[in-house]
Amino acid sequence: MTHIPIDLQYATSEQPDARPPIAALRNVFKVFGDVVAADQLNLSIAPGEFLSFLGPSGCGKTTALRMLAGFEAPTSGEVLIDGQVVNTIEPYGRPVNMVFQSYALFPHMNVADNIGYGLRQRRPRLARAEIARKVGRALEIVRLTGFEKRRVWEMSGGQQQRVALARAIVNEPKLLLLDEPLAALDRKLRKEMQIELQDLQRQIGITFVLVTHDQEEALSLSDRICVMREGRIIQTGDPQNLYDHPKSRYVADFVGTSNFIDGRVEHVADGVATLATPSGLRLQGAANAGLKAGDEACLSVRPEQIHMHRDAAPGSLPGTVHNRIFLGEHTEYLVQQPALGSLNVLAPRQGQPDDLSFQTGEPVHINWNPARALVLSPD
Amino acid sequence: MTRRERNWLLVTPAAAWFVVMLVLPLSVIFVFSFGERGPAGGYVPAFTFEQYANLPARFTAFKNTMILAPLGTIAAMLIAYPLAYQLAVRTDPKWKIILLVLVIVPFWTSILIRSYAWIFILGGSGLPALLEMVGIEGVRLIYTPFAVLIGIVYGYLPLMVFPIYVSLDRLDKRLLEASADLGARPFSTFLQVTLPLSIPGVATGCMLVFILLMGEFLIPALLGGGKVFFVGNALVDLFLQSRNWAFGSAVAFTLIVIMLVTVTVYMRLIARLHSGRQDISIM
Amino acid sequence: MTDTGYISKWKFMEELRRYRKGSVSRRHFLGVTGLGAATAVLGTAMPALRPRAALASSDIGDRVVLATWPNYHDTANFDMFTDATGAFVQVNVFGSNEEMLAKLQAGGSGWDVFVPTNYTITTYVSEDLIEPLDVSKLPNYDADAFDPRFSDAGTVDGTLYAVPKNWGTTGFAVNTSHDGGTSLTSWKDFFDRTKDDFSGRTMVHDYQLTTIGNALKYFGYSFNSVEESELADAERLLIEVKPHLFAISSDYQPAMRSGDAWLTMCWTGDGKQLNADMPEIAFVLGREGGEVWSDYYAIPKGAPHRDAAYALINYMLDPQVNAREVVAHGYPVADANTNALLPEAILNDPILYPAQDLLDALEFGAAATLTDPNRAELLARFKSA
């Protein structure tokens, strides 16, 4: 059993950035009637980072974004942008721009007029030529050069998405807010736009704040992810950190997929917890902070961490292949284990000769590295 | 039954309506307008342009109509817009229906009774008496063009409010947020987003009210005291009093032509204002 | 109106009710509003609105359609007629003789009985729109009891086409509290004072016969003149007076009652009603003359229920029935048998029965006046001037 320096890893991603934040939420509450939409939000957003709010619908992520944009005022607490408290500043006074879920393009204006809208609101007025130049540059960035005179309703969803992006970035906001910007696109287009968004963010260096319920999107785009639940921020971290070291079953479940085995903590030593399952098995894993002997807990082990063998190995558990789905690079197995129930196992094709792949109904032995398993509070 | 036959069957009622209610009466009016008045009134077939030559005798009626109908339309629009805006944009959805119903309630009473209420309000013991109390004396309201204007605006306001309300209610509120987000102050947002996008409703309302006003006769008769003479009043007199059907037909046909020309020009203008937009329908 | 001039809602409703009660003046109003046609349609389309025929005892059919003037009948009489005969009286009210004529000319009126005014009957005869009457079917018609002055027009070329209903005069009503102690007695006074101390307070009818006729009387011309030069004088006077007019409308009761108008051309019944409610309003017949008129019952050509039409006319000519009519609407009758049943107060009322010398100066409207296109055009020019 190896000791895993869990705390060290956490420190790298949760240590506050040395630079002053571009935006921050301090003890922010937002109450709608008797619904708490934001419950003590604390967050600093570093300049140039790509931050995502991730959570199911109704978790408060959109409220958080709208408070940054200025569409909602916090019930209490402070919203800061560029070091200034902006609680009472209207949306039109904030150096922030938003890309709306359904783009909210102005249907009575062509592409160029839509993109130039923000520039035309500036006082003192910008010269026409200057506006045209900036609009042209923005179109270039979103690869829509030549579309200036197009009517927005004539364009495809992906093109409208880019117009919406261009309309926001042309203003060079301190913060670009994206409210589920890709939700309306089909799967293939969404993948393409994800890559484009990431490229764009690197290219122009604006801080992006994204709201999404799509974990894959959050994982692939973000520098940092805030997982939200019922108005609270549950955990913040970079994608890999969240995936490898979720602090709760909720996060482990929402970020990626995992097998959960319920039980009771028998003892904790050196950051390693021993869990007793109701069926009498004893399993070990890295202990979540604060767990102590006697607590209800669950062991989380990712499908790709489970290894399958034809022969028994020390500490391995017997099981039967119940189902098998071929996914190309991987094969997903559903293994029935008498004491633990069904477990998801993801086996890479690599190093698994064709003749060695397991068949449905075949008896197998499974094990995993206890250092790769986590013992979490069950929330 | 083939698809083609079915389509014909579906179109038939509308076509029959169109022929019976529109084409036939118009043809009759057109033919009559070239005839002559009988010795005891009515119509005698003839082919003469005499009736059209006589049109200048109703010049004032046309002039009054062409001034007060557009003026009434614009006044109704200026009053209806803020009202519709308040209802569509600012009102809590749970109050909307009640307030909308309140806008229609006056329609439940005959225009006759409502105009009588105005005769009393604008009459000497009504508003002028109140004005006298605050020191403004000698105001004559009833039986003036102004009284007719008030009656028109009052009577046709709901027709104006509804289309504007619908276009404002349908307006995607995120567009307003987008505008604010892009730095536009509320009034700029109104001018650049709300107003242009509600033009279809305004256009529809103006069209409805204008067309009806061109044929109006009851309100001028009741609130204008017979001194504010619309083409509609001229027609009532020609058909029901002097029974000069030929001249009446010529006046009516001229009114229809003026209306068609005005409406066509108006629609062209609106269409140009929204060049190429497909979501604009005027009628 | 209270002392402070504040309009309470009770007062408002009361005013409105008074307006509605007294507003519908005899000839014009419903014509302008088109309500006459509306009531007719309603009566036909909604049979449930009609009283059920009680014990239909005769074979005259289930209904009779009457085209008449507003506020011109005692509805209790109709109910009794229905009870007696089983025929329901469907009433269509009209605004003007011109409108009645227009409807009959257009054809398909569906009327059984109508109420033309004296000067229209020859036109109906020449246009072949009116049925000669069979006196044997009108046992209640006692021709000798009628003052021939008000019954003559019913007979054209020796044929009886119509029997008299009521008669009346056209004068003016003046609010005497505003006449400065100098009373108005003539049409000259009417127009001259309009340009002077009654400026902005005078109403004239929206009706060519009376408005032009009374303007002609100002110059001493015939009420019925179609003489070009005389009409030109009348037009000049009317256009001169127009800026001083409060309104051109035959619906003058509300304005007279509210005090907005002080002087108006006025028919007998309206004069009587105004005077009864507001004694300061006097009804005056112009010294130069003016109009006297007589209305008749007649049957249009092609009446769908001819038997019922005769039954109704005969019933209305019953002196008992006719007396109840007079008490209800306040217009005099020319029938001695009916007058014998009326109370003294009505018979001695100078509004209903003016002094003989005033009456002698009055003229009946003429057929030519009704159909003259120049007079119609003159009124249109006056109204749109």
TrEMBL record, chain B:
Membrane topology annotation: Multi-pass membrane protein
Entries under InterPro entries matching the protein: MetI-like (IPR000515), MetI-like_sf (IPR035906)
UniProt-listed Pfam families: BPD_transp_1 (PF00528)
Domain (ABC transmembrane type-1): residue spans on this chain: 62-268
Chain segments annotated as transmembrane: 7-34, 66-85, 97-121, 141-168, 245-267
Gene Ontology biological-process annotations: transmembrane transport
PROSITE patterns found in the cross-reference section: ABC_TM1
Keyword Nucleus found: no
Gene Ontology CC, one term: plasma membrane
Subcellular location: Cell membrane
Keywords, sorted A to Z: Cell membrane, Membrane, Transmembrane, Transmembrane helix, Transport
Family indicated by similarity: Belongs to the binding-protein-dependent transport system permease family. CysTW subfamily.
The name this protein goes by in its record: ABC transporter permease
Species this chain originates from: Roseibium aquae
Organism phylogeny: Bacteria, Pseudomonadati, Pseudomonadota, Alphaproteobacteria, Hyphomicrobiales
UniProtKB/TrEMBL annotation, chain C:
Biological process terms in GO annotation: polyamine transport
Parts forming coiled coils: none
Entries under SUPFAM superfamilies matching the protein: Periplasmic binding protein-like II (SSF53850)
Intracellular or extracellular location(s): Periplasm
Major location (coarse): periplasm
InterPro entries per UniProt: SBP (IPR006059), Sperm_putr-bd (IPR001188), TAT_signal (IPR006311)
Cellular component, GO annotation: periplasmic space
Keywords assigned by UniProt, alphabetized: Periplasm, Signal, Transport
CDD domains in the record: PBP2_PotD_PotF_like (cd13590)
Organism domain of life: Bacteria
Gene Ontology MF term list: polyamine binding
PANTHER family xrefs: SPERMIDINE/PUTRESCINE-BINDING PERIPLASMIC PROTEIN, SPERMIDINE_PUTRESCINE-BINDING PERIPLASMIC PROTEIN
Protein name, entry field: Potassium transporter Trk
Source species of the chain: Roseibium aquae
